[in-house]
């Protein structure tokens, strides 16, 4: 009886172990956190982002297209064979007599060689078009990589901003709670009224939603960052950098220290706006790709013009014929032949379709030229707007440089005066609000400066 009781007691413990053990193992597996620097995040995105992967695959397709077009330059060799079983052999009449033609089994085979000699420039233009496609695919891959890198950087900064704002709101909540404790102590001493306690409790309650919202924005930012990196949304990541003065957040040793004056002073030597425009037109892969598209449409004109010109090719053929009533024909029933020659095709009349195709090709080339000029104008606009955003953010950052420390000193002095009865509760809350606002403005300006710097460097193709 005693043994049964001990077993009954051990049964719940065993069940508890069976249930909790897998959970502990799962939590241990989830505890593995991926730590990300800015450059590390960009590297992962360039390796796993679907847009970059697809651009790389398309690049491979266009490289193969070059080989495909070169294949039309070389001789085309083909072989064919035919076996015919005469179930009822054909006959023909000669002089009133019916004569049977052919045996039961007929075999034919041929080896044919064809070589284009001249096609009015169509083959050359085809190879040129293939090379343009190949070069364009390189620029499309660069475009995808640059866009993903920019998005990752700016999302990384946005997550850091959310984290910093959550820290600011947490500090504001702690300060409100500390002030509540001070006022409650004064209330117990009979120095403060119950109304003052209620006011401060309301202040604490009003601060809590801002912290909750900042934390939620932080989590949403992490999910968006994981999406850009091609990671599962359940992957645990931690950003190892933070928004602090002097923190090197940009990618690479050259760009870490380059929130430079040269980008912020148009018209001053190498940092002038014209230099930025020139750098953008030289460095933007989208501009290079559009220029290649224009060249491609120009080559299409040559392809369509080829429809007016003769087509000349050479051919050679080696043929075999044989017949037998049964089995494969012997040597005496076999026939071999060889032919070679030139083939000339001259278009005489096409109902005006060739001329129409040429006009269409020229119109497409004109449209491509217009698109190139329009893109050049848009790029300059993007550069100017990005420069203005960086300039404005940098000025805001400079103006907020000492505001946080000043506000913190003012709050400390107000707290001392409040404890000594020399400052009101309203002055205390105003000082707390001023610190919160100065911290928020400063961290927002720091984020905007980094983000605008990233945007400007993207607009000039860096």
Would you give an account of this structure?
By secondary structure, the protein is α+β, with helices and mostly antiparallel strands. The protein has 2 domains: 361 residues, Outer membrane efflux proteins (OEP) (Up-down Bundle), CATH 1.20.1600.10; 35 residues, no CATH class. It has 11 helices and 8 strands. The chain has a 4-stranded antiparallel beta sheet, with no helix packed on it. Strands 1-6 form a two-stranded parallel sheet. The protein has a two-stranded antiparallel ribbon with strand order 3-4. β3 and β4 form a beta hairpin. α3 packs antiparallel against α4 and α4 runs antiparallel to α5. The N terminus is likely disordered.
Give the structure's gist in a few sentences.
By secondary structure, this protein is of the alpha+beta class. The longest helix has 67 residues, at 122-188.
